[in-house]
Amino acid sequence: MVTPNAQELASRSAEIMWSKDHASKALGMVIDKVAPGSAQVSMRIRDDMVNGWDLCHGGLIASLADSAFALACNSHGIVTVAAGFDITFLESGRLGDTLVAEARQIALRGRSGVYDVTVRNTDTVIAEFRGRSRSLHRPIIQEQR
C-alpha cells in the first residue's frame, strides 16, 4: 500500500522533473499516472514520427519507455539518472496509434535500481524495456531552485 506522503512525493517529483522535460513534451508525451516506483506515460504517433516504412521510429518508442522509466526511478524524491537500458521490439507502432508505456520498479539496492517498462498499443505489446538507474543522492525538491 502506498502511503499518502510517498504518493505526494512521487507526484511532486514528477511535476518538477516534467516541468523541465522539453524533449518528452515536444514528442507529445503525457503523464497518465505516477506512484512510488511506477509511472505510465502515453504518446500518439504523429506523421513526423514514422520512418521510411511508415512505422513508428524505434528511437521514439525507446524515448517513450525512457520517459516512463525516468518518472518511475525519480518517484522516490531523489535525483536519479539512467545507467543504461535494453529494449526489445516485438511489434510495430503505426501512424495514429497511441502507445502507452508502463514502468515498474523491479529492484532498488543502494544507489542502483532496475526497472521494467512495457510499451503497448491497446492490448498489443510493442516493446519491452529494461532500465538500470543510478541515484545521485540529491533531493529533487532542492533541484527546483
Structure description:
The protein has helices at 4-19, 22-26, 58-73, 140-143, and strands at residues 30-35, 38-44, 78-89, 98-109, 112-121, 124-139. The protein is of the alpha+beta class. It has one domain (4-143): Hotdog Thioesterase (Thiol Ester Dehydrase, Chain A, Roll), CATH 3.10.129.10. Strands 1-2-4-5-6-3 form a 6-stranded antiparallel beta sheet. The longest helix has 16 residues, at 4-19. 30% of the residues are buried. Residues 56-125 form the Thioesterase domain. It comes from Mycolicibacterium komossense. Keywords: Hydrolase. Pfam families: 4HBT.
Summarize this structure briefly:
The chain is built from four helices and six strands; from the N terminus they run H-H-E-E-H-E-E-E-E-H. It is an alpha+beta fold and 145 residues long.
What layout of secondary structure does this protein have?
Elements: H1 4-19, H2 22-26, E1 30-35, E2 38-44, H3 58-73, E3 78-89, E4 98-109, E5 112-121, E6 124-139, H4 140-143
Antiparallel strand pairs: 1-2, 2-4, 3-6, 4-5, 5-6
Strand line-up in the sheet with most strands: 1-2-4-5-6-3
Helix content: 25-40%
**Biggest β-sheet: count, sense, barrel?**
6 strands, antiparallel
The CATH superfamily appears as: Hotdog Thioesterase
How many strand elements? 6
Number of domains: 1
Q: Assign the CATH class.
A: Alpha Beta
| CATH architecture call | Roll
**H/E topology pattern:** HHEEHEEEEH
Radius of gyration: 15 Å
Q: Name the beta content range.
A: 35-45%
| Oligomer type | single chain
Spatial gap, N to C terminus: 31 Å
Shape: globular
Average pLDDT level: 95
Query: Which runs of at least 5 residues are low in confidence (pLDDT < 50)?
Result: none
The CATH topology corresponds to Thiol Ester Dehydrase, Chain A
Keywords: Hydrolase
InterPro entries: Acyl-CoA_thioesterase_PaaI, HotDog_dom_sf, PaaD, PAAI_dom, Thioestr_dom
Organism: Mycolicibacterium komossense
Protein name: Hydroxyphenylacetyl-CoA thioesterase PaaI
